[in-house]
Amino acid sequence: xxxxxxxxxxxxxxxxxxxxxxxxxxxxxxxxxxxxxxxxxxxxxxxxxxxxxxxxxxxxxxxxxxxxxxxxxxxxxxxxxxxxxxxxxxxxxxxxxxxxxxxxxxxxxxxxxxxxxxxxxxxxxxxxxxxxxxxxxxxxxxxxxxxxxxxxxxxxxxxxxxxxxxxxxxxxxxxxxxxxxxxxxxxxxxxxxxxxxxxxxxxxxxxxxxxxxxxxxxxxxxxxxxxxxxxxxxxxxxxxxxxxxxxxxxxxxxxxxxxxxxxxxxxxxxxxxxxxxxxxxxxx
Length: 284
What we know:
Elements: E1 9-13, H1 40-49, E2 56-60, H2 70-80, E3 87-91, H3 100-106, E4 109-112, E5 121-122, H4 129-132, H5 136-144, H6 147-151, E6 153-157, E7 160-162, H7 165-173, H8 195-201, E8 214-215, E9 221-223, H9 225-233, H10 237-240, E10 244-246, H11 269-277
Parallel strand pairs: 1-2, 1-6, 2-3, 3-4, 9-10
Antiparallel strand pairs: 5-8, 6-7
């Protein structure tokens, strides 16, 4: 694993409301019985805590544009993070989206994906490493080299700060104890300080394990038995709808993750993102 300060991005996860229910979503969308919306005061604390972080500060969901205070949050991010290239937005740009001009003004980096292409392949998240890899030594070796933690981001949710955005999502879904206090310098932690977060959530996550991926458009989550039992106990809406597939021990042979792995098989990726971006031109 890498130190948080060496990451290129830290995300502020402002809501898990979303217009989609993609397969194996890293935000575990579809299993929550109701969405969360980060309070504005929490958002300001999150942004303030990252003012000196050298990388990009992102706004993500779910779909962040569904947050009722999105415009106010975007303006605060603009105020506190002066360089527009350090302000990022991850969005599907849902049809009927407002604030197109605001988005283009505030965010120097837009990462747009509406998940309508069947070649967008998602790694199983809810297949627990502890169930897929029975040898603890190998499991922890895989976790220590997890591509998500190395290539993607740490995260802040309404429950605190986390060394990994997927660990943050697990904590939110499974009613964990929350993250670290959101205060200046929290992101200076080294891997040996990830402690309880790593030990609690990484064995329940499948991101570090070489597993077969699934097209996001299938809207089905691959789930191991232990996680499925917990989701059933929680009355997960996605489980009730039968939108899960029980993991049966499959391993992937051709498994070469990298930072753009989810999109790398999409032909004309730039044109695909440009098509989504055009929705901003007609909105205000």
